Amino acid sequence: MKKIAILFIAGLLLGTVSCKESEFAEAYPDPAKIAESTVEKQFTGVLYANREYVLPGYTHYFTTLRLSMNPYTQAIGRLNQSGLYVPGSAGVENVWFSYYDMLAQYRELQKIYASKPADQQADRKIFMLAAAIYVYDHTQRMVDVYGAIPFTEAGKLSTNGGEYAASLAKFDTAEGIYAFMLDDLKKIATELNTITLNAGYQKSFQTQDFLNKGDITAWKRYANSLRLRMLNRVSDVESMKTRSNTEIAEILGNAATFPIVETNAQNIQINVFDINTDINSKGFQGGLASDGWYGNTAGKAMIDHMNTNKDPRLPILFEPGLNAAGKFIGIDPLASEAVQTAQYNAGQLAIYNRYTTSHNQFFPGVIINAAQMNLIKAEYYLRTGNDASAKTAYETAISQSVEFYNKILSLTNATGITGSTIPTAATPASVAAYLAGDGVNWAKATTNAQKLNLIATQKWLHYNVVQPYENWADLRRLDLPVLSFQVDNANNQTLPPVKWTIPGNEITYNAANYAAIKATDNLKTKLFWDVK
């Protein structure tokens, strides 16, 4: 049985990103050989460990997202059956284990680094800073779905010399983890401005870093963009409001010191260059499109908004049902199961465009992108009374979102798709017309509440199934856009939950520490940042 106190994968000595998974296994058949790892190669092990939960993989989309986040945001439609608001235990556990596999790799990296003399630590510091940014990104994601989790003491079985009892990790509070990471990310962002690498370690960093290819400026953008995302997430928390506004102002007012992702060329994502390596999106097809009801059927609210406002992304993101005469129709969450089933069987319902999404084996592993950053900026400027800057950021984000999906479409290698043709890219003219439309036009919104709804709706549209964690987090935090759900009166969980619960294995094997947070471990206790 897996449990986080003993989760410990052998250190992956990754020479280049073109290595096959079998080669990693052959190099490390025995976890006891972890001492043979190095800082440089262990860093790649951190990135590699959860790659299938960054790239759109089969297990993540099929066992987790189709049954929880994506229907909870109505990014996809689901049949109205009893129990539809209870997250599947397998999917929840898979996310848990993937994260702690990665964290175990990170703890081993820290252990190896700590064993080096000071001069060698100085040479290799960039690996530690970059790894921390990556781990904190995925830690925020975990906190945002589970709340309190084991973090500061987790994954340290090897560090503790194999002492199992000493390695059972306490649960840290969600707010405490946020505060710790925000503190450390600010330090990292500052240190990255002064770090220098000699030629040898610059080359090594480029080789081992399959995310940002050794680009220190990209890691700066990643660190500060992550800070911006976290600070905005806590912007309504009374104890963090001042910090949020102060540090966001500092970041946005000092681009040279604290750069963030500003253009799609700067997006933080795992790009796929060769689908015959382990860095590919081959699993996206089975994960998203293998089960029509629960994977890629379009939700009515999203389709209706895109239809009404002539969204230029509509034909890029979706394709009409086979018998829908070219019309985009989404599944109604308030319809009966019988009506929904009849509509699906009649071939009326739209699905996610297979050329752009599921069958596109070059689909990147999306982490942070420019449209997301500008929508966060728009929200910040709106709440601080800078309407002009909010408008600019909002409109820029929409243009960047269209550009983002145009680019992904251009990467596609999808073949053998019946009943559909490859869509054409959206044009600047279609974007301009969209921005001028009544349901999107900033000037048509006369109150801050209406403008916030515009921003939240664009987040929802942009994230869809591509950034499900961001989508669900912002929907819970803002309660916008307003979505309607059928009440499941046959189940104790009558509406979508506000968080996940801790997996059963963790409860069983870490019972003493779990007891401290048991009272809040349910589907109805909001996260600390969910205050509206």
From TrEMBL:
One family from Pfam that matches here is SusD-like_2
Key words of the record: Lipoprotein
SUPFAM superfamilies recorded = TPR-like (SSF48452)
Organism of origin:
Larkinella knui
Query: Which intervals of the chain form a coiled coil?
Result: none
Protein name as it appears in the record: SusD/RagB family nutrient-binding outer membrane lipoprotein
